[in-house]
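Students often ask why we bother encoding 3D structure as a string. The short answer is that it lets us treat folding as translation between two languages. Here is a chain of 315 residues written in the first language.
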Amino acid sequence: MNRVNQLFGIKYPIIQGGMVWCSGWKLCAAVSNAGGLGLIGSGSMYSDVLEEHILKCKKATNNPFGVNIPLLYPHVETHIQKVINNDVKIVFTSAGNPKKYTHVLKSHGITVVHVVSNLKFAQKSLDSGVDAIVVEGFEAGGHNGKNETTTMCLVPLISKKIDIPIIAAGGISCGKSMLAAISLGADGVQIGSRFAVSKESSAHINFKNQVIEANEGDTILTMKDITPVRLIKNEFYDNIARMYNQKKSIDEIKEYLGKGRAKKGIFDGDLANGELEIGQVSCSIENIFSAKEIVESIITDYRSQLLKVNQDFGL
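And here it is in the second language, the structure alphabet:
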């Protein structure tokens, strides 16, 4: 059996990214009900809100689901306690050192997965005792690695060195890209951008439509010296780029950023002043579908492409 399917007890090795302002209980439950693994994105939630989403998700699905916890965000300690108290079985951690919390989570029988952007952090994650890793190339949206290593380079590099289940992320949105990731050494895939514009995503319709309208080259990885993030170029980004060109200090840029930029763009739908976090693959997303339709189309496309490859090579 596929190692990711076995680890999580799911039908398909498709994990929905735990994206801030997109990944509430509705999206999480819908993906899990479709046979993948849904994740609640806790990075945009207070701990009592997270608990509410966990409880609603439990009512909406009998299938496995998890919670994504960015370790550099506030409320990490209370988030972890809410996860433990509500008997969540799977936690994905990101944006920080997994060593501090992995043992605590695993001591409560929780399966732990950490997101990495290079081999060094993959090895540190292995040493900390995680059960699997998400290997994320810089094509991915939102907070990202500084090295700009692509998924196609990163997955085979890490799969040669690390012998725990590997989940590829970044630039994956269809069955063809899923097949490519599996061929490179991944056991499964994590998909963010396509689920970000699904019907069940909590993102604002303005944001979803902006993603659908995005063309090649419309996203960029910026603010590497603060917190690297891939977003759609807009007025907010233009102002950031102008400040860098004017040699403004990091403190001045941080002051301009303020707080709540991602919420403003993704959740409130302010396309000018908000941070529109999305991956490069946005240029290939053309419609708003349900999570079930997305999962089914990916699996159908995967099987069709695998058959075609086998036929082309006489296998």
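Translate back mentally: The CA atoms of residues 16 and 98 lie 20 Å apart. Keep this in mind for the problem set.
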